[in-house]
Amino acid sequence: MNFTTRHLAYLFGVLLLISLAANVFFYQRAAPAASASNTSETQNESNVSSESATPADTSTDTERIATSTEIERLQELTTRATRFVEYAFTVTKDSYTTQKRQAKEVMSEELVTTLFAADGSDVGTFETTVRDIEAFPSVSGDHCLVRFEQDLLITETGYEETTQELLALTFESIDGRLVVTEMEDLTPEGGI
After folding, report:
1. Beta strand pairing status for 143-154 and 126-137?
2. CA 110 – CA 77 distance, rounded (Å)
3. What is the model's pLDDT at position 35?
């Protein structure tokens, strides 16, 4: 028997159809079995998780709690550092006494005494504002780096200056509040 190209094409086509039919047949058989096993696995998992937790599951839950607690601590450090900078480095007309009162919430008594020593301020001669505050809390301790821009306006002369500042803040928990106890200026002489 002589096989021509035409015979080989028919043979290849028939084999392709048989293969396709076999795939469809086995796929239809496997799909219901897989969905049934997935349903039973889901039921078994829910039964196991409700009955008892393994030590690995418990440690994962503990890690999640520790992680969320750590995130809350970092957020609180960031918020406190931002407020500290706003209260300590913003001086506007009629704001000195208000800021002195607010500063007691975010800094130690020693820092309040140092930064707000006077009963009032010569606000008529200058004003300062801060903007673009960025806080970088330490993961390993109660420290925070803070970078911000400070605008100075000397009202008598009209002189304006903008500087970039960098501070290292140290926090402690005093009376259940996280407050700044130390401040170190890290700004290089020529500015940042």
Report:
1. antiparallel
2. 19
3. 52
- Report residue 187 as tokens: 């700004």
Q: How confident is the model at residue 115 (pLDDT cuts 50, 70, 90)?
A: confident
pLDDT of 27-44, one tens digit each? 776 666 555 544 444 444
Q: How far is the C-alpha of 122 from the C-alpha of 91, rounded, in Å?
A: 10
- Write out the two tokens for 34: 């897989």
Structure tokens at 182: 């130390």
Would you call 86 helix, strand, or coil by DSSP? Answer: helix
Strand order through the sheet with 126-137: 126-137, 143-154, 159-174, 177-185
In angstroms, rounded to a whole number, what is the distance separating the alpha carbons of residues 187 and 191? Answer: 6
Residue 82 has pLDDT above 70, yes or no: yes
d(CA 119, CA 109): 15
- Confidence check: pLDDT of 93 > 80: no
Residues 147, 192 contacting (CB under 8 angstroms): yes
Contacts of 61 (CB under 8 A, 6+ apart): 53
